[in-house]
Amino acid sequence: MTTDQLPTDKPGRLTVLSGPSGVGKSTVVATLRREHPDVWLSVSATTRHPRPGERDGVHYYFVTRDQFMAMVEDGMLLEWADYAGNLYGTPRAPVERRLAAGQHALLEIDLSGARQVRAAKPDALLVFLAPPSREHLFERLSGRGTEDEETVRRRLELAEVELAAVDEFDVVIVNDTVQNACERLVGLLESPTTAHR
Ligand code: ADP
Ligand code: 5GP
Q1: For the CA of 84, the nearest atom of ligand 2
Q2: Can you give the pTM of this predicted structure?
Q3: Which residue segment(s) compose the domain that 183 sits in?
């Protein structure tokens, strides 16, 4: 059974992929998009500018700050957050439509967004993408060499706090290799129950 063929007499399952900054969420999702185009992934709205290769309506809806705040005020976002100075949010209607039709929906969002989804949709399955070790995360965070020492120190402090959030999640997927993490995520989406909780 593919995840698009869940019976419609059951509510669909909402799955949230989150985890500390720099753990590899967007890398895993890029592989998922490429290798499992059948998996439905929510397209977030954001005020950040598109990166090369990113397409409006595919990777994000790129909006102005005014447009974003209008969406917030109109209750159009399931959750939203300020991440590194840009706003990001999950459009509510497409997710609700999927769930009402008994289909799965996958969100890839930051930790504060995951907490908001937990509050709004207690049945959602929250998946924490974890690094193989603290050292791996610190390496991925500081290894770029583009930030000054103070910025790296602040990022590492934040990473400690973010790692502690693992206890709030239902399932942990270790991002040892991107391929493994992606396959485990797909396995979760395809499993018929939420027995992981
Ligand atoms: P996030 O979206 O969680 O902030 P990214 O996807 O931007 O994280 O990944 C952060 C860095 O870690 C990138 O340089 C990425 O190439 C690298 N990375 C991601 N997954 C792995 C992995 N399994 N092994 C090694 N490096 C990884
Ligand atoms: P990026 O700018 O690298 O694409 O994303 C930055 C961060 O924003 C990532 O941690 C990503 O998970 C998070 N993010 C993307 N979309 C959303 C969203 O709709 N809501 C929230 N809360 N976070 C998001």
Answers
A1: 6
A2: 0.91
A3: 3-190
